[in-house]
Design goal:
The chain has helices at 13-41, 51-60, 76-86, 90-99. It is built from 4 helices and no strands.
Length: 100
């Protein structure tokens, strides 16, 4: 058995590992570039055409309807009923305001 620490441990391990790490990183970067080039070669101009997404999005847009109601001729109870029918979330908002 060896009596020196260097017999069991490599003194220049940091130098070797950092050089190996740099070499591995460079190899990984080269491999990534090869993969990207190969994937890019399969793409066409049609892959970048966004008009089909825009057309699909415009089809799904719901048209908002605005109801105009004459509140001047309504009583206070009628106004409240109209408000509750058209805004069902309002009572929860009122309660949360009362709590805070």
């Amino acid at each position: 058995w060896g009596k020196k620490k260097s017999a069991y441990y490599n003194d220049n391990e940091e130098e070797i590992s950092s050089a190996d790490e740099e070499e591995l990183e460079e190899e990984e970067e080269r491999e990534a570039m090869v993969l990207q080039k190969r994937l890019m070669s399969h793409l066409s101009a049609q892959d970048f055409d966004t008009s089909r997404f825009i057309a699909d999005a415009s089809d799904t847009v719901e048209k908002e309807t605005v109801l105009k109601t004459d509140f001047t001729s309504m009583s206070k109870d009628e106004k409240l009923m109209h408000l509750l029918q058209n805004s069902p979330e309002l009572p929860r908002c009122w309660r949360s305001l009362e709590i805070s």
